[in-house]
Amino acid sequence: MNVRAVVLTLVVVLAAGPALVGTAVAQQSGDLAHPSHGEGSVDQDSACEFPVEVTDATGQQVTIEEEPQEVVVTAPNVAQHMWEIGAQEKVISMPASNTGYLNGSEAAADEDLLVEGNNGFDVVNTEHVVDLNPDLVLAPNTTSAGAIQELRNAGLTVYHYPIAGSFRDIMTLVNRTGRLVGACEAAAERTATMAERIDAVSRATADVEEPRVFYDLGQGDTLYSANAATFEHELLDLAGAENIAADVESEFGTGYPQISEETVLEANPEIVVSPGPLSDFAQQRLVDELGAEVIQLDANLISQHAPRTVDVLVSLAEQLHPEAMETVEFQADEEVVEDQQNSTDNSDGSGPGFAVGGAVAALLAVALVAARRQ
């Protein structure tokens, strides 16, 4: 992406007024890297009205006739979406595991929503969901296509999310969630806060000396990491770190390659970053013998790819570059919201709750992310 083009777009948007803001964000962000999944808009340029028609990750056109009041969420990341946009009271069922950090989650935590499948992994209990008869089922990409079809065959309205591979994708999907449940303005406010924080971190770490980092996803004797095609790589890059596995190819094209001990040792990482227990090699060789530092990430927040993933970015940047981050002052969420509301109050009202101030932050964040990844 050409950053100068983004700045030019900002000038045009600011001159034209808030009516063009949502469209400009959608165009400059490029939306999701899944155009065949129908994610062609971040929904900020259309009024939050019903009925709404969207195309989901299965290619299915999903029509929601009226604002849903009872929603089932089949995975924790979209449960976090609902909490972060103030729509948690609509959730009547969500996974009981990995959602306990959400305030009041016990009211919707459903031990019967997931059952153990034939492969040993949890799968959606479709009969239970059908019995609940919700107005809408929000099913993240971890929900199988078979379960989606079973729910649709039973007459339920289901939206299946694509994979979020970047902060840009996360913000797009949060806005999509808001559109689906009638919380467009709150979703736009939340993503504006995300954009402001990403922008602040990116600016603070733009000129730092990047330490060499090994992102450890290993289990026991097997070493895995994250290459340049992953969200984790973007996280490291924005936080001001050099990912030693950036150019390592994955045998299965997943973005998470198996990596040899020789490759890691040759790169001589100064820091090991991990969302869980370290692999035996990382602990014994890199840390115990060679003295590499360790930074542990919040496993829930990094794996769920939702709004609070930005908290992981901020925390990682603060640990990697405490001096650079020392002068960063983040606006409190309510301050960002107030800024947006003030901008909206001073506009002609043509924007659907996504004010110029929030769009500027989003555009700048998108531009900086794109520039750092080139």
Tell me about this structure.
There is one protein chain. The chain is of the alpha/beta class and 374 residues long. It folds into two domains: 30-200, Rossmann fold; 209-320, Nitrogenase molybdenum iron protein domain (Rossmann fold), CATH 3.40.50.1980. The protein has helices spanning 3-16, 21-29, 76-84, 126-132, 145-153, 167-181, 184-204, 231-239, 261-267, 280-289, 299-304, 309-320, 322-326, 333-345, 356-373, and strands at residues 52-55, 61-64, 71-73, 91-95, 109-110, 114-116, 122-124, 136-139, 158-160, 212-215, 242-243, 271-274, 293-296. The strands form four sheets. Strands 5-4-3-8-9 form a five-stranded parallel sheet, with helices on both faces. A four-stranded parallel sheet has the order 11-10-12-13, sandwiched between helices. The protein has a two-stranded antiparallel ribbon with strand order 1-2. Strand 6 and strand 7 (122-124) form a beta hairpin.
